Structure formats: structure tokens, C-alpha cells
Amino acid sequence: MDPTLTMFISLIATSGVFTVFLCMYAYIKRKEIPGAYTFVIYTATQAIYIFAHAFEMASDTLVEVKRWTILEYIGIGAAPAIGLLIVMQYVGLNLTRSKIAVLFVIPAITFVMVITNDYHHLFYKDMYFRENVPFPTTDIVIGQYYIVHGAYIFGCMLAAVVLLLRRWRQTKKVYRLQLVTLIMGQFMPMTGAFVYLMGLTPYGIDPVPMILCITSAMYIWAIVSTRMLTVIPIAKDRIFESMREGAIVLDFADRLVDFNGVLSSMFPGLTTDMLGLTLDEAWIQLSGTPFPVARSQDGAQEEFSWRVADGKEFFYQIRSSVVRGRNGEPIGSLLMLIDVTEQKLLQDQLEQLAYYDGLTKLLNRTEFLRRSKMILEGDQIGEKSKCILLFDIDHFKSINDTYGHDVGDLAIQHVVKVAKRLEADVPSVLIARYGGEEFVMAFPACSLDEAVFLAERVRAQLAVEPMSGSFGSIAVTASFGLTQASHRGDSLEMLLKHADMALYQAKRAGRNQVRVFDGPVEATFGNFR
Hints:
Largest sheet: 6 strands, mixed
Shape: rod-shaped
Helix content: 40-55%
Strand order of the largest sheet: 9-10-8-13-14-15
Number of strands: 15
Strand content: 15-25%
Structural class: alpha+beta
Radius of gyration: 42 Å
């Protein structure tokens, strides 16, 4: 046998051995490798093609060449389609069984056409040994279906390369070596086949089996160095994308490395074009402000709200965790964004029911008492005193009897609207519905004179602002009783009792006035009669 031919056959046989090794490795590790059986079939068909081609080159007659050619096309026809299927699985494109079957229609027809070629010559019009070459080399005259078959093979390999190249930007650096290996595993055989069809190879030898030696070696090297088959990014991506929570991956410099599809649905303006920006830079593009939550502690949980274009508000809880390298050093962070809008709304509803009055939206009596006790326990007596103000609507029963309870409710809301204006000047004031038409205020840090001034302001505004509606115009006034916590031992119950006594005095004195409790004698401030 010619030494050159022996060299070519040896290279091809080596390629076959590498491919068989890959096939056996994938089968042994089938429980650890996603899509292992597809890879087993892929390498098995390549091995059939490679060894059949080696036997074809060693053949001395056209009959033997044709026999091995038929065997070759088990691999030539199916391998490109299986390779495309592997790539599609790698990038996360899962096909149904019917679509997978469609991929193999052309390879199946090709195999039938090769077997029956002597009857129709649609695949090879002629096959012959080349002249003036140092060893027997076959050449062919292609038929019409050969063009269909060739176009399909190139289409499969080109589609696989394009899918992998599109995946480049979303692939982390640690996985890019795997991606390069897969790209070269498709691109190099495609290039070799093209060079062969152009007639540019020495002695007209098909270089693809020898190229597969290189790609198989690359696969083996990638398996050893990056555990390519047992740890592939699509496994991570499937978990990443199937998470119900939004996820953001940041590097050590707080730059945006990745985010999942859930996060994209939470914040539609966040795109892959922002990868590489810091989280604050990306958020400024998204909302005009930096990211609203500090991310300093591992496992820290914070909440923030997000308002979409239609005005609807969402609430998200953020859980931050540090991502560590092999040696335990921090290399980045992972932010989990959990949609807690429903829980937040439910919590607000429960809080409204538990802490607030349904008609006025003021604090209810129970919550007022709880908060006021906390205020009294605070250490502010030495600076400014604390004051309690009770007031109720004058002649409220008459309003109900004359106009009905609906108008009575409107009168209560009217008084609340006027009283709440104090919050603009005294944000610390507590206002509550104490019961029926009676209300209470607590001034945490207010002198008696200031409290009298504020109470008189509310009284005067009520007196000059009648309530209007379909029922006409109704004058709504209120009487006020005020007391001051002058000693640290003053209890809330005692202060409320004193304020109630002052309120009663205001009512008895003619209503629509402010009275201050001052021991056994109440003093009148201003011209309130």
C-alpha cells in the first residue's frame, strides 16, 4: 500500500478511535449529561462514516467502494441533522418529536437514494477511479439529488454555527471555551466539505474524516479541561430561566452580568444591551434614578416599589447573596427579586382593618391608644410637653335625625378633612376617630400654648366652612377639650379623662369652643361663647 495512502488511512482511523471514545464516554456518563443519548447517536454515526471511509480508501474495486459508500451515508446523511439537534438542545430550543422527525426526512431519503442509485443514477451519475494518482482514488459525477443532499448538509451545519454564534454574548466567560469547541466542531467539517466539493484537496481526498480527528481531539480536551459534557451552561440556564423569581447576577464591580426572563417581564425596559453597565447605570437608564436598594450584606432583605406606565404599583422583596469563587473570595453577587405585591396589598388591607377606621381612614381607637402610650413613654418631657385633644361634632344627633345617617357620615368626613390639615404643619400629630362623632389628637412635642393655637385653628376653620351638598348647606361645628401631660407619671387614661372633662365643660358652656383642663377649674381661651 502506498505510504501516503497509509498515512491518510491512519489519520482517519485515529479520528474514528477518538470518536468511538467520545461515544463510549457519553454513554457511560449518560446519567450526568443532558441529552447524552443524542450525543451517543451523533458520535456513533460519525464513527460509522469515518471507518467506512477508511475501508473505502483501502478498496481496490468499484464494487467494494460502492458497498462502503452505502455504509458511509448512514453517517453522512444523519450526523449533520443530529449535530444541529444537539446545538438546539444546547441553546435551549426544545423540539417536539414531530419536528425532530422532520429533520431526518432528507437523510432518510438520501440513504434510500444511495442504496438504489444503480437503478436511477439520481445521486451519482457515475463513479470511477482517478487517473495519474499514486493510489486508487474514486471520483464521482454528481446527480440531481446529490445537490439536494449537499444543500441540506450545509444548511444544518450553517444553522448550528449561527445558533452558537448568537449565543456568544449571553454565554459567561467560563463557558465560552465550550462554545468555541462546539462552533469549531460544526464549522471545520463544513469548511472541509466545501473545499472538497470545490476540488481543492490533494488527490481529491475527502478531508472531513481527518478534520473530525481534530474536532474529536478538541472535544476530548474540552471534556478534560472544562467538563464540557457534564457541566454545560444550558443546564444552568434552564434553572435560571425556570425560576419564578427575578434574578440579577453582578460581578465584583457591581456590573450587570446576567438576568433572567422573569426580571425582563418585571422591568420590560431592561435589555441585554445594558449588560456590562453597573446596576446603578442600568437603573438610571431604566427609571432615571440609581437602584433603590443598598446591597451591602449577604442575605440582606429589602423592599422597594415600582410603578409601571399605566400607574399600577408593584412591590418587590430583594434578597442579596454573595457569589464566591473556588477559594471562597467574593467574585460577585446574586439579587433575587420576589414579587410580593399581593402579599403587600393584603397586608395593607389587614392593617387598614386592624389599625384604621373604615369611614375616616384615621387611626382607630385601639391603635391610637397603643401609639399614644409609646409617645408617653418617650423621654421628651424635659423638652416639650405632650398634649391630648378630644373633640366631637356639635348637635350631631340633630344632623342624623334631620338629614339621615348618610349625611351624618358626610359630616364626620367633613370634620376629618379640616382636622387633617394640621398634618402639613405638625407631621408628628396623631389623629384618630375615638368613637362615633368623637375624635382625638395627640401632640408628641408641643407646648400647651401651641396646642391651644392649633385646636383653635381647627375650630375656627370648621366654623367658617359649612358642609354643602344636595341636601343644601349645613353648619358643622365642634367642641374641644385639651389637656397637658405635665409629669412623667401621667398616664394616658388619666390624660384622656382630663381631656374629656374639658370637652364636657366646652359643651356645657355653649359648644363651638376650646377648653383646657387645669385642675379642678377649667379656663376658657379666646372668645368661644
